[in-house]
Specification:
By secondary structure, this protein is mainly alpha-helical. It has a single domain, classed as Farnesyl Diphosphate Synthase (Orthogonal Bundle). The longest helix is centred in the middle third of the chain and has 28 residues.
């Protein structure tokens, strides 16, 4: 199953799912955040992974929807913690309603995700629940590490990689493993699929950090340089702080202190420092390393190459993306 077909299947199933309980003030934000769309990458990957092992892709639909609802719950709460005003070009839930609504509607989405997961086939449910629980805790741990980094000047590359593994990559990995489980994969096949997703998720986030600085704003779809303006501890900034010396290090740390800098000047100057240190090449190289690892894990899965072709194509396209 290719990505577009999987994405369309997910959208169709989400539209059929009833999110119309009362009170409306609780469930309307749920329908709203899910209606904003997005790539549907994670649930689509669940279906695609299932199709590597079996044609019975319907077995993966409930886990796919559960992970998508859970993912959107995390976005709803992340937006509130980050005080973000826009999500996918629309008002965030806490802006459109209020913070209390965002908290409570996010809570019910978390519960709904478990309710949907519980509708999975009984033969897979115990393993799926174990995977789902472990992943949910890891995502929360990753978010806390990301928040901790906001108040720290020094963050190591190793700490950053662990943070994005927990906050981003493990969810991608779990979605793929859930697909493998419901496709009847043996334990080795499921674990290889998980490692494919974990490394792909890390590469995806590194690429995302890169595009926020060096992407084309006309293609990227949002304002370039937001990570710089917010002093976000991305790989690019962490590596620049590690490699810069003397006057350049002083200039870089100067841009990170205070809040009265001209935004345009700050983005331009910090980007120039990144470029002079060749951080763009280093970042691309690290993303490529994890992409290569992901492909190696996918190749080790003992199924015909044609069954893995759609996932291989997706991984390649993701690494070449400009938005």
């Amino acid at each position: 199953m290719d990505f577009e077909k999987a994405r369309q299947l997910v959208d169709g199933e989400l539209e059929k799912y009833p999110f119309s309980r009362s009170p409306a003030e609780l469930y309307e934000p749920v329908r709203y955040i899910l209606s904003l769309g997005g790539k549907r990458m994670r649930p689509a990957l669940t279906l695609m992974a299932c199709s590597v092992f079996s044609d019975a892709v319907h077995q993966a639909v409930k886990p796919a929807l559960a992970f998508e609802v859970f993912h959107n719950f995390t976005l709803l709460h992340d937006d509130l913690m980050d005080n973000s005003a826009v999500r996918r070009g629309k008002e965030t839930v806490h802006e459109k309603w209020n913070p209390n609504v965002a908290i409570l509607s996010g809570d019910v989405m978390s519960i709904l995700s478990y309710r949907i997961l519980a509708e999975s086939d009984d033969q897979y449910l115990k393993e799926l629940l174990h995977l789902f629980n472990a992943t949910a805790m890891q995502v929360c741990e990753g978010q806390q590490w990301d928040m901790n980094f906001e108040t720290r000047m020094e963050v190591s590359v190793e700490e950053y990689l662990k943070m994005i593994e927990l906050k981003t990559a493990v969810l991608v990995a779990a979605c793929l493993k859930a697909g493998a489980i419901t496709g009847g994969a043996d334990p080795l096949g499921s674990d290889l699929m998980y490692e494919f997703g974990r490394n792909l998720g890390i590469a995806f986030q590194i690429r995302d950090d890169y595009l926020d600085v060096f992407g084309d704003p006309k293609i990227f779809g949002k304002k370039i340089g937001n990570d710089i303006l917010t002093n976000k501890k991305t790989f690019l900034l962490i590596k620049a702080l590690e490699l810069s010396k003397g006057k350049m290090k002083k200039e870089l740390t100067g841009w990170l202190s205070g809040h009265d800098h001209n935004p345009h000047d700050k983005v331009r100057s910090v980007t120039e420092i990144f470029a002079s240190l060749k951080i763009d090449r280093i970042s691309s190289g690290l993303a490529a390393t994890h992409y290569d690892k992901a492909v190696q894990y996918l190749e080790r899965i003992d199924t015909p190459p044609e069954r893995k072709a759609a996932l291989a194509d997706f991984a390649r396209d993701m690494m070449q993306r400009e938005k």
